[in-house]
Every structure is written in C-alpha cells, then in structure tokens.
Specification:
The structure is a single chain. The protein has 10 helices and 28 strands. It is α/β, with parallel strands linked by helices and 404 residues long. It has 2 domains: 146 residues, FAD/NAD(P)-binding domain (3-Layer(bba) Sandwich), CATH 3.50.50.100; 203 residues, FAD/NAD(P)-binding domain (3-Layer(bba) Sandwich). A hairpin with a 2-residue loop joins β27 and β28. α1 runs parallel beside α9. The chain is globular.
Length: 404
C-alpha cells in the first residue's frame, strides 16, 4: 500500500501519527529526539515552574502500534526525485511524506543576535536558560555585579510574554534562595511593534501589560534592537541595556530544508500547499505546521500548535484517501481561542469569542493542557502528568532548578 514517513514529532507530526494508528496503518516517524516536547509550555520549564523533564513524553508512550516505528534521527535533506528523506543515520524511502520539521529562529539580520542571545525553542534550550539564570543569581553573591540580575527578552508575542510572566514569579524565589533583596532584579521585554500579543484584542493587550507591569516587568513597545554584543543590547534610541541574560523570542521562519529541496516557498521559507495541504510541487508530499504556507483569507496561517495539530489530523485522512483513490477533504482551520499565561496564576485570552483574564484565564490555559494530553493518550496520559505540569487549583510548584 506504500510507505508513510513523517518527518518531525511536533504537534502536527504526532497528531498525524495518531490518526494512522487509529486506521491501523503502519508508518515511520523520524525525530531528532526519542520524545515529543510540549513546546508551547517551555516558558514554564525555563521559568522555574516545574522540572524540565516534565515537559516531554516518550514517543514510545504515544505510539503503541507494533507495525509502526520511531526513528531517532535528524533529517538533513529531502530527495524528491528518489522519494527519500535523508537522515544523518540512514535514508527513509517514502511513497507519501509528511513534512513537519518545525521552524528556525528569525533574527532579522540584527548584528550579534545569533551569537549573544539564547533562544527558547526546545527542552535543551529551556534547561540552558533556566540553569544560566540560576547561576547568575548564585554568582551575584560573590561579585555583586548588577548585570547578573537583569534579564532582557526580545519579542512580545506569546513566547516572550509568557516567559517574562514566569520570570516575574520565579525571580523573587531565586532572590529568597540566594539572600538577595527582592527589588534588585530587573526584567525588560523589548518589542519593535507598537503592541504586545498581536493575536489578541486591544483590551486584552492592555490588561496583559497592566498585569505584567504590576509584577515589575518593564514592557517596551515601539523599541527596536539594532545590535547585540556580549551582555549588551543596543537600541535604536541609542540607549544601551547591560544584562547577563539576553533571550530572543522575536520570530521564526520555516526549516530551511524545504527551500533547499526546491519547494516553492513564501518569504518565510514555508512551502506553498493546496487546499488539501499537499505541496503544490509534489502530490506525494504534504507539509504542515510551521513549514506550511496555507492561505486563509489571503494570508498564511500563523504558526500555532492548535493549527499544526489540526493539520496533522487532516493530512493523515487525506493521505489515506489519496492512497485508496478516494476523495480528499480541504483543510478548514478552526481557531478555537488564544490564551496567554502571565505567570503561574493569571492570564489573558480568548476562549472562542469570549474574552477572559486573571485567574479564569489561567485555569482555561491549564485546561488546554488536559485537553491536549487527552488527545495524546486519554486518561493514561493525563494520569501520567497529573502531578507534574497539570496543576491543581491554586497549587504552585516550589522546586527550583537545582534538582535538574
């Protein structure tokens, strides 16, 4: 019946694999790690809420069908002529391929940004950021260098805003741990655009800003970073910010392998697809998630986990239909809402068309975790995570990074 290969075990790739399992259709999923990362919750891991290890699940726990396999490998090229995905370890011939390789950071040509900033993109980088920040606070006791207690986060989309919200809750705990006066640390969020959280309404943007500023975060919109050097951020206004921790969350582009393989791509490197999420260049290749340029109301869809998951379900059904000469179904994106946590106990966002903020928004955010875990593995997966990343009402994780 033909071989199926999924490149990438992010939200879209995993959902596609689960649909194939339900259809009892064997497949191979190729991923850099043996686990699936909860990418949209990494701000919690980097910001000290729970153990870093809690933000993943082994793919062997997700996929239970014996005829399918997980290949721990990194795809380095796509050979369309031979219908092979080329990995560092081996090659993966396919009759149908799903490209779900995620994104790469977009640095917008800002000098020094790639060399002197950290990016929150994976469990590995979350651990690096978390460890780095705690080390800076520990070292402050010895040299009293105020730069060690300053954090600059570039970008005010979901990742940047949620991360500074976590920091605002965590850094006071670090101050207490290391005997540092609570008022000593500083958190700045720097954004070139005039607003934060552009996916939300002006009302919710303002509420988010008020909440974060109430926690001591300095939000700086209409502020361009023009250069970054070691421990130094240069702004267009000629101001210089000195900080030992610089984290960039300001944008993404598609995995460069698509363009290298000759797919027709948009300006962000995303492969153009038709209404069925098929590459416009190859009917045997389907592209989803951050790699896919799917036009909705004339514009590409934003790179979100909920849309990637929906794409994964759709392409699995369409591939099975295509294999059996059946009728494929056009992808119909459903944006069910957007929620931003602003620390451990408050948030803002939309649930459907309903605006919510404060504690109710935080609870709604937690419920999205439960929903996703249910999709991954029902009660089995929820039970596995109930004492780690899924909190109880008003509970708070007290462990710091020292146990990582």
């Amino acid at each position: 019946m033909g071989s199926l290969v999924i490149a990438g075990a992010g939200y879209g790739g995993v959902m596609a694999g689960l649909q194939f399992e339900k259809a009892l259709r064997p497949f191979v999923i190729v991923n850099k790690h043996s686990y699936h990362q909860f990418i949209t919750w990494l701000h919690e891991a980097a910001g000290g809420r729970h153990r870093v290890e809690d933000y993943k699940v082994e793919l062997s726990e997700v996929f239970r069908q014996r005829d399918s396999s997980v290949a721990k490998d990194t795809i380095v090229s796509i050979d369309r002529a031979s219908r092979k995905l080329i990995g560092k370890k081996t090659e993966y011939p396919y009759d149908y391929a799903i490209i779900a390789l995620g994104s790469a950071p977009e640095f917008f040509g800002i000098p020094g940004l790639v060399d002197y900033s950290m990016q929150l993109r994976s469990l590995e980088t979350a651990r690096q950021i978390r460890t780095h920040i705690e080390q800076q606070f520990a070292a402050y006791r010895e040299d009293r260098d105020p730069r060690r207690l300053r954090v600059v986060v570039g970008g005010a989309g979901l990742t940047g805003i949620e991360f500074v919200g976590e920091l605002a809750d965590w850094l006071p705990e670090l101050c207490n741990k290391f005997g540092i006066p609570n008022h000593s640390f500083g958190i700045q969020n720097v954004e070139a655009a005039p607003v934060i959280l552009p996916a939300l309404s002006t009302n919710l943007q303002n509420k988010a800003r008020d909440i974060l500023e109430g926690k001591g975060v300095r939000i700086r919109t209409n502020t361009k970073i023009i250069k970054v050097m070691q421990d130094t951020v240069y702004l267009e206004s000629d101001e210089i910010i000195e900080a030992r921790t610089i984290v960039w969350t300001g944008g993404v582009r598609a995995n460069p392998l698509l363009k290298e393989a000759g797919f027709t791509c948009d300006g962000r490197g995303r492969a153009q697809v038709n209404e069925y999420l098929q590459s416009i260049d190859d009917e045997h290749v389907f592209v989803i998630g951050d790699c896919s340029s799917f036009l909705s109301t004339g514009r590409p869809l934003p790179p979100t986990a909920q849309l990637a998951s929906q794409m994964g379900e759709t392409v699995a059904a369409n591939i099975l239909a295509h294999m059996n000469q059946g009728v494929m179904t056009p992808f119909e994106p459903k944006i069910l809402g957007t929620l931003a946590s602003l620390g451990r106990d408050v948030g803002v966002g939309l649930v459907g068309n309903l605006q919510t903020s404060g504690v109710p928004a935080s609870i709604a955010k937690e419920l999205t975790k439960v929903k996703y875990l249910w999709q991954l593995g029902g009660l089995r997966m929820i039970s596995r995570n109930r004492k780690s990343i899924v909190r109880g009402s008003n509970s708070r994780e007290k462990e710091l990074a020292s146990d990582d």
